[in-house]
Hints:
Blueprint: H1 30-35, H2 43-46, H3 51-69, H4 73-86, H5 91-103, H6 107-120, H7 125-137, H8 141-154, H9 160-171, H10 175-189, H11 193-206, H12 209-222, H13 228-239, H14 243-256, H15 261-274, H16 277-289, H17 295-305, H18 315-328, H19 334-345, H20 349-362, H21 367-379, H22 383-396, H23 401-414, H24 417-431, H25 435-451, H26 455-468, H27 473-485, H28 490-503, H29 508-520, H30 524-537, H31 543-555, H32 559-571, H33 579-585
Helix pairs in contact: 3-4, 4-5, 5-6, 6-7, 7-8, 8-9, 9-10, 9-11, 10-11, 11-12, 12-13, 13-14, 13-15, 14-15, 15-16, 16-18, 18-19, 19-20, 20-21, 21-22, 21-23, 22-23, 23-24, 23-25, 24-25, 25-26, 27-28, 27-29, 28-29, 29-30, 30-31, 31-32, 32-33
Amino acid sequence: MLKTIKMIRENHIFWVTIPLIVLVFSCKSPQQIVKKVVPEEDSKSLSLLTDDQRQQFQYLFVEGIKQRTIGNADEAIKIFSHCLEMDPSSSSSLYEIANIHLLKGDFQSAMIMLERASSLNPQNQYYLILLAKIYQQNKLYEKAAETFGALSVLSPENPDYPIFRAEMFGMAGKLDDALACYNELEKKWGITEQVSLGKQGIFLKQGKKQEAYHEIENLITKFQGDTKYYGLLGDMYLADSLMDKSLEKYNKVLQYKPDDGFVHFSLSNFYKVAGNNDKSFEHLKIGFESNGLELDAKIQMYMLLSQPDDHHLTDIQQLELINILIDKYVDDERPRALLAEYYLAKKKNKEAREQLRLVVEINKGNYAYWERLLFIDNDLTDWKSLSQDSKSAIKYFPEQPVLYILDAVSMLQLGNYQDMFAVLDSAETNAANNNQLLSQIYTYRAEAYYKQKKYDEAYSWFDKVIKIDPQNYLAMNNYAYYLSIRSIKLDVAEKLSSAVVQSNPNNATYLDTYAWVLFKKKDYQLAKFYMESALSNSTEENPVLVEHYGDILFFLNEKDKAVQQWKKSLKMGNSSKVLPEKIKTVTFFESVEE
């Protein structure tokens, strides 16, 4: 029926913050201000407008930037669209609209706007760079290659554009075109790592193994002091099951750099392929203990080998590697964060929390660590710890609304309602216009008022929740249940609960609420159907559901079965004060509050 309020980890809210652009206004005239805001590329087309039209355009453009800056994306699009009505050749307006679509995740619309902007102003590199990235995002690799080609012409001194062009041709499957690009760059630059590795990748896709080997051998010859290319060659031999040649190249690296952690990782993989797991783990440990390898690389290797679907490491081996890193990097919190994640994966939340407390002691300035710690407090239903930890986190991140919300959750559970409202005020201030966060804040306000029996205030806040977030099913369910308990507005309760069940047809809690609302409306036959659905969908034995099922059976004149369900509920641990009396007198009694 009414579950304990918990903020579940899977329901995290993610949002995009738009960088704040501050427009500083002085005593200059509007024309002077706007000249710094409206890009020069529009000056030619603007000259065709009358003075009044030009001034209006400039005002609108500034207003559009202002609305985009404060996060009113839809309003900004309307304003920039009006700018385009006044000046259809305004590439800067198209560019602004494209950026807004991009922030909203609408890559298709952003692409259309940027294509128009680039056609109007083909010399603008910013337009082309963003357009190339969008092409890549949409997997239009050939178009991305062509765009990077145009950028190479506009900026021939930039070495990245021709490399990106070759890479995009390769991703588009235009392997000959990619190879031609790399060969052209090799003529210009000589043998370089980027070009040779690019060519190697193309040759491998073409099935030209010898040519691929030759590219790595060229790097070994050109850069004789760099042993990593021996390792790359060893990896290639291993991929082709040429075990002796592979081991020879790895040993070549060790000859020059015995503390090279990467080669020990390669040797670990080599012995894994060879079926020698003990030898494989031995080299893995040497790599983790190596002084010649950064912690970042070791963490990446651990993450790679400890995936749930990967059977490279046993639990004992994972712990051994993590402890190597903890002992070796005592002033870095990341190994302990790895240990916390290990415990979380094993559902050992208390052990994970213990490690995260050490993590935030070492690094108090990482918001993600604090949030992780608070959600563990929440999952453990340790409300006192959640209250203490959330207040500590707020000291370092006073602008984060989620921290205030979690603090409010702890206060709600501890019955500290008055202080809770002040915390929710801070949460609301920092949540700005984020309706998903505001929905949570309003829900907890409603719950707190209900707990204090201030029913009208509670219902008013529930109404606000539903208005801004009609898919907040937890709030809708609780609202419907509260109305049914007091037997008021039962038509409203039925409408709310029905909508919740339609969207969550297998949720036992929501089905139970709907059955109870129908029970209160004396629609006992339909109530029975939904209560039986609730019982069949419940993943755990719930004595309250069983008691309610008995109540429904009683009013369907199936009193013997009703008593059986009441007795079953009592045996399951139901602490209802009226339940024993129901059983004794074979009479229905309703709790004043459930």
